[in-house]
Write a sequence for this structure.
């Protein structure tokens, strides 16, 4: 019996541990299968090949868009142009962030804190000095009754860095970017108070009235006006071409951008058309609810890229905040010129327009898009300016206004000879030093030629127009099983 018991004991020791799932086999790193969710308001464009360029006799652009067969991977694309309502969400987020940043600066200066452990932990302290409620967010419960030697490494790191940047702030009276953009997140749990009668104290009023609003002499119709020059957005990107060329110094390919004004340029309605009465569009088009579902205009190429970066951040911040974390999404971006044309064709080979063509009207004589018909009879298509982003019939991919309404920014840099040297697989010419960017689709003020799916045009990246908007794409990842 003793020999049998010893044998069983040794056998148990030799068996693999029940806590080990791999049992020494190659089973891959931990992770679950990924199923892509359908992004809100986007359509899936299945990868494939198509003939890029003008397939009919086009003397005007014979050296601009010669035909060639190219192949693209699958991608998502917005079903409509980005609307005023959607872009306002971005503007409101930036405005909210700027206000909270300025309130946090004032709270730090007002209270004289040099450590996060000094942040108020009781309602009484905040009641006594209400602006302290807007201090950068930090997990104060983790600090309560914890000795320095018992604090975690990251907690100590945060406190040390916080002390350094705040000390610099008090010496220079300039809040360092790292305080609000890296080390401590803004406190979004406290509401912003906009009614003057409800300002909690004089310091709060000073921030809103002297920093956020323009001087009273610049108010329009007596209403407070926010200083839109404060509405800046910072983001970064890596130039992968440079990174590949110089792999030992990846930082050389890393660039930070600051879009100085993310608010649309509403003066485009005046600047684009001299000797024309467009004041109502200048005054109302972006902010009035009547135009909420119309395409946003007055956006330059850099503003469109900033919006794409924010849209990615907004979605991924939400996914990271979930208790049961889900995989983050790939970035939103402007489409390449080839992606835009492929999507615009709607799966139709050699079509002149998104609906095929070559006609501009349907069988009832109604125009198929919003443009300038005939010799300038703008209203013949039942629209003088833009129309709602989901107007007219969509193409076979379910995309609206891929011809007319507003021209659309793409990610591609314009050059006449681009089609001669780009690759035939996911082609794109991208040069950040060259400011000429491809726009596609034609607009409400263009003649029919620019509505053709193959017609190319360009605008300078820092230019905003009353007839240029945009839509975004996102790379398609994972399996073919799409959760609706």
């Amino acid at each position: 019996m003793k020999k049998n018991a010893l044998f069983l004991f040794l056998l148990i020791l030799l068996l693999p541990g029940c806590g080990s799932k791999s049992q020494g086999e190659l089973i891959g790193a931990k992770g679950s299968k990924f199923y892509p969710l359908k992004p809100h308001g986007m359509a899936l464009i299945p990868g494939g090949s198509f003939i890029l360029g003008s397939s009919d006799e086009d003397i005007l652009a014979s050296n601009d868009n010669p035909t060639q067969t190219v192949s693209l991977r699958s991608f998502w694309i917005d079903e409509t142009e980005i609307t005023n309502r959607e872009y306002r969400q971005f503007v409101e987020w930036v405005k909210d962030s700027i206000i909270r940043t300025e309130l946090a600066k004032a709270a730090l200066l007002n209270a004289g804190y040099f450590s996060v452990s000094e942040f108020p932990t009781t309602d009484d302290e905040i009641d006594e000095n209400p602006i302290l409620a807007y201090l950068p967010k930090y997990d104060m419960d983790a600090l309560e009754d914890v000795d320095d030697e018992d604090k975690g490494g990251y907690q100590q790191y945060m406190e040390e860095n916080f002390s350094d940047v705040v000390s610099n702030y008090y010496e220079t009276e300039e809040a360092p970017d790292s305080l609000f953009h890296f080390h401590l997140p803004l406190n979004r749990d406290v509401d912003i108070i906009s009614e003057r009668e409800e300002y909690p104290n004089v310091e709060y009023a000073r921030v809103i009235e002297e920093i956020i609003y323009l001087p009273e002499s610049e108010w329009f119709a007596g209403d407070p006006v926010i200083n839109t020059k404060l509405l800046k957005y910072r983001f970064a990107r890596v130039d992968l071409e440079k990174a590949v060329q110089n792999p030992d110094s990846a930082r050389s390919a890393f660039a930070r951008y600051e879009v100085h004004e993310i608010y649309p340029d509403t003066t485009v309605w005046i600047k684009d058309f001299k000797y024309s009465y467009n004041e109502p569009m200048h005054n109302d088009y972006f902010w009035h609810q009547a135009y909420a579902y119309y395409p946003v205009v007055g956006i330059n190429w850099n503003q469109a890229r900033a919006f794409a970066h924010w849209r990615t951040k907004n979605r991924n911040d939400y996914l990271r905040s979930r208790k049961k974390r889900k995989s983050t999404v790939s970035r939103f971006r402007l489409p390449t010129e080839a992606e835009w044309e492929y999507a615009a064709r709607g799966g139709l080979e050699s079509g002149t327009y998104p609906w095929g063509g070559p006609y501009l009207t349907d069988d009832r004589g109604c125009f198929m898009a919003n443009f300038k018909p005939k010799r300038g009879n703008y209203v013949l298509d039942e629209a003088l300016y833009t129309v709602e982003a989901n107007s007219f019939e969509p193409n076979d991919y379910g995309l609206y206004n891929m011809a007319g309404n507003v021209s659309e920014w793409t990610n591609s840099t314009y050059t006449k000879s681009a089609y001669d040297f780009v690759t035939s697989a996911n082609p794109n010419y991208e040069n950040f030093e060259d400011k000429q960017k491809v726009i596609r689709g034609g607009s409400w003020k263009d003649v029919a030629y620019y509505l053709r799916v193959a017609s190319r045009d360009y605008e300078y990246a820092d230019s905003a127009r009353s007839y240029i908007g945009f839509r975004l794409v996102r790379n398609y990842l994972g399996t073919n099983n799409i959760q609706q």
In short: Residues 8-15, 140-145, 175-182 have pLDDT under 50 and may be disordered. The CA atoms of residues 130 and 200 lie 6 Å apart. Residues 84-111 form the longest helix (28 residues).
